[in-house]
Design a protein that fits this description.
By secondary structure, the protein is an all-alpha fold. It folds into 2 domains: about 140 residues, Ammonium transporter AmtB like domains (Ammonium transporter fold, Orthogonal Bundle), CATH 1.10.3430.10; about 130 residues, Ammonium transporter AmtB like domains (Ammonium transporter fold, Orthogonal Bundle). The protein is about 75% helix and about 0% strand. The protein has 14 helices and no strands. α3 packs across α6, α5 packs antiparallel against α6 and α9 packs across α10. The longest helix is centred in the C-terminal third of the chain and has 30 residues.
């Protein structure tokens, strides 16, 4: 019974790690939100998270990393993503399984080489799958249904939809559940994600992009991840959030205008910039500390 409880918690943590939260409760809220919008995508999320976690277990990767859910979030995104883009079929379920396994291997490579992949395995695997399926006509593209919405509050519309779109969902209800899931584990991160979404929406509006796309959070969901990833209690954390949001949103706009598949690549790109910047700042601070000590 204890092993089953641990496995359930680990799988849910993997889902929660989509927004960088090591919390089973967060993952459970995320799963409920996905199922609210689409039971099928909820099943895909759960199946892929289980496969990713099981793969890490079978290959005897670090128990600490497994229990933290680090092998579940890319797999979950692949499962939901393929179920979002295509009508499910034996081939799609097979690709979800294979993609989940490959994402686990890539994540282990990232951890061992200390390379910050974030959601890069999900991006590469999903884009390759989409382009291959489309080129050979292997599956039917999915036409999203109309989701039942809560009465929309204009002030929160962009941010709620942005949270929702992080995991391919379209309703404000799902977005609010995602926000609450993050907030319960890390209020600062949740609020920074909210603010980042608003900033991204403003940038897209200034660029005179589609009002409908802005309201649907299509230019803001990468910003949500930036806000969460860079959140903290220091003043500089706010600057990192702002910088990463601007980079991600501008690149998101560029990719969309050129008809490229964006997914979460703008977020990953901005994080690579921020990680490099933090290293430079850290080295500068260390040198200044040495100078002060030698005075």
């Amino acid at each position: 019974m204890k092993n089953i409880k641990t496995l359930v918690e680990t799988v849910l943590k993997g889902i929660g790690q989509i927004m960088l939260q090591e919390s089973a409760w967060t993952g459970l809220l995320f799963l409920i939100a996905i199922c609210y919008d689409s039971l099928l995508m909820g099943v895909a999320a759960l199946v892929s998270a289980i496969i990713g976690t099981a793969t890490a277990k079978v290959l005897k990767f670090s128990d600490e990393n497994i229990n933290a859910g680090l092998y579940g979030f890319n797999a979950t995104l692949i499962g939901v993503g393929l179920a979002f883009f295509f009508q499910t079929s034996p081939l799609i379920w097979f690709l979800i399984a294979v993609g989940s396994i490959v994402s686990t291997l890539l994540m282990e490579f990232s951890i061992r080489k200390k390379i910050p992949f974030f959601t890069f395995p999900f991006i590469v695997i999903t884009v390759v799958a989409i382009l291959t399926i489309q080129h050979f006509g292997l599956a039917t593209a999915r036409i999203p249904g109309v989701n039942k919405e809560l009465p929309e509050l204009e002030v929160f519309e962009v941010a709620a939809h942005a949270y929702s779109e992080v995991i391919f969902q379209g309703t404000i209800a799902a977005g609010l559940l995602f926000f609450v899931g993050v907030f319960l584990n890390n209020p600062t991160a949740a609020l920074y994600g909210f603010v980042a979404a608003i900033i991204a929406g403003a940038i897209a509006h200034f660029n005179q992009d589609s009002v409908k796309l802005i309201e649907d959070g299509m230019f803001s969901f990468n910003a949500v991840l930036c806000g969460i990833a860079c959140s903290g209690t220091r003043r500089r954390d706010g600057l990192y959030v702002l910088l990463s949001t601007v980079i991600a949103t501008c690149f998101d706009i560029f990719m969309m205008h050129n008809g490229w598949i964006t997914l979460t690549f703008p977020f990953v790109l901005s994080m690579w910039v921020i990680v490099s910047l933090k290293k430079i700042v850290g080295q500068f601070e260390n040198k200044m500390a040495i100078v002060e000590e030698n005075k």
